[in-house]
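JOB MANIFEST
job_type = single_chain_structure
chain_count = 1
residues = 254
[input]
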Amino acid sequence: MKHTEAHIFAIYFPSTSDDLQHINLDATYTVRDKLLHHRVANVLRMKTGNDIILFDKNRHITCKLESISKKDLTIRILKKEENVPLLPQITFFLPLLKRDAYEETLYSLTELGANKIQPIITEKIHRMWHTEKERERNMRIIYAAAEQAKNFCFPELAHPIHFNDIFENINFTESALIFFDPDGKELSACMTDIQNTHVNLLYLMIGPEGDLSTYEKEVLKKHSAHFCKLTPTVLRAQQAAAIALGAIRSLITR
C-alpha cells in the first residue's frame, strides 16, 4: 500500500513568537492556553505524535504533540521559520459589500495572498457598517482562511476610508492601480502592461454590488488606473475579487 503523509494542521496562535521563539529546536515546551487546547484536543481531535504548525504574523513553528493532558499541551519544536510576505505587495481596495458577500470575500482574499485589505466607502454603498465587534468577527474569518491556506503572512485589515481618500498615500511612480471592470481591457493585455511596469506594489479594486459611480470611474482614470476585464460575463463582487487576485498572484511574480 502506498504511504501517504498525514495532513499537518496550521493554527493561528497569537503568542507564537513570544512563547516559542526562544525554545531551542528539539526541546519540549508545555503550552497552557485554554483556546489552543480546546481546538487541538476537542475540535481537531489530534493525538500524541501528530505534527502541528503554530503561527502568528511574524513566524510559523512546526511542532510535534508529545502529550495532551486535560489542560495542557506538551510540544516538541521541530522547525522555526520567519514569515515571508508574498511579492508583489498587493493592497486590495474592497468596498463595503453586503455582510455575507464581504465576509466571503475576506476569506478568499486571505486564501489568495493579499498583503493588505483596505475597506472603502463608495457612493453606492447602501448601508454603513463596520463596528469593532464586526471587525473582530472579520479578523476571525481572516485567521481561519490563513489556517486553511497556510498563508502565514495573512493580510492586514485596515479601517474603512472613503473612496476619495485612497489616493492620498499612493505613489504612482512606484505602484500600479488596477480596477476590474467589464468594459476594461482583456486580462492578458492588462497583465502585459503591469508586467512591463516592473513595480513591486499593486493596488487592486472592484466595484460594490451596484458598481462604482461614473464620477468614481472618472477619478480612477484621472489617476491612470488600469481598467481590466476578467471574464466576458458580469460577475458578483465576491467572485470578481477572487478571480482578480488569483489571476494577479498566478501571472505576476517578483
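[summary]
The mean pLDDT is 92.
The chain is about 30% helix and 30% strand.
exit_status = 0
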